[in-house]
Design brief:
Distance between the termini: 22 Å
Radius of gyration: 17 Å
Number of helices: 12
Shape: globular
Largest sheet: none
Strand content: under 5%
Order of helices and strands: HHHHHHHHHHHH
């Protein structure tokens, strides 16, 4: 990242990034998928490729706070089933970043998010809302986990946009609110940390970007605390509606930007 990006932010630009960092904390402990708005803000203020490198450590800070908050609610069979497919998606996303321009990346991810949102909304109308999460030991469960895992790894690598993908998977699998948040917290902590060497290798993370991260990370904490307070005041139906709305918003802003 160009050092000029760090030292020549205007007060308004820094305020926008600080708000986006606060929103990252909120999304990690309340409404997963809302950080697509943060992605858009970072990409608007910073150069597109540099923005992904700056945002990744901010996301990791939010992941750590989410794990500390919801660590007892993770569904580990789902996580173990997802990780191999996510790894393949991260590798594919790294290769994709080596040749695709910003417009191709944005259009591809936006289309994927909107398609999966439509599928999930349709599917949620056909299942019992009180069902347990889909079994990952069935053939259908394994196929779905692998499909979403590859897409999640791909989108999180190319644009830090894996949140809406995994939100759609966990909703479609029937996860309730706390199980949803606990499972996604561990998932993204592990995946985002694993992305760091790839991002460093691509030149997306360097000294100046980490210095900016150290400042912005201070705003993640109050956002996470606000999310922890809010999540217990949001019922399951509203929670799902907010997650889906955030995903649609993220998909549209990627397509239309």
């Amino acid at each position: 990242m160009n050092t000029m990006t760090l030292w020549h932010l205007s007060p308004a630009e820094f305020a926008a990034l600080a708000f986006a960092a606060l929103l990252v904390g909120f999304s990690k402990t309340a409404v997963s998928g809302a950080n697509t708005v943060s992605l858009a803000i970072f990409a608007a203020v910073l150069p597109a490729r540099a923005s992904t490198g700056v945002l990744l450590p901010i996301l990791i800070v939010g992941d750590v706070l989410a794990v500390l908050t919801y660590r007892r609610h993770a569904h580990w069979p789902t996580l173990w089933r997802l990780f191999p497919a996510v790894g393949a998606g991260v590798v594919f996303g790294t290769l994709f970043l080596m040749w695709a321009d910003d417009q191709v990346v944005r259009t591809s991810i936006g289309a994927i998010l909107l398609l999966m949102t439509a599928v999930t909304v349709w599917r949620r109308r056909t299942v019992d809302q009180d069902d347990e999460p889909d079994s990952v030991t069935t053939r259908a469960g394994r196929v779905k986990a692998r499909s979403y895992g590859v897409l999640g790894g791909f989108t999180t690598m190319v644009a830090n946009a894996g949140g809406p993908v995994m939100s759609m998977y966990l909703l479609s699998a029937g996860f309730r609110k706390l199980g949803f948040l606990g499972t996604s917290a561990f998932f993204f902590l592990i995946v985002n940390v694993s992305k760091v060497p790839f991002s460093v290798g691509l030149g997306l993370i360097d000294g100046p970007s980490l210095l900016l991260d150290a400042t912005l990370a201070l705003f993640v904490v109050p956002g996470a605390l606000l999310g922890k307070w809010a999540v217990h005041r949001i019922n399951q139906r509203l929670f799902e509606q907010l997650v889906i709305a955030a995903t649609v918003l993220g998909g549209l802003q990627l397509l239309l930007r």
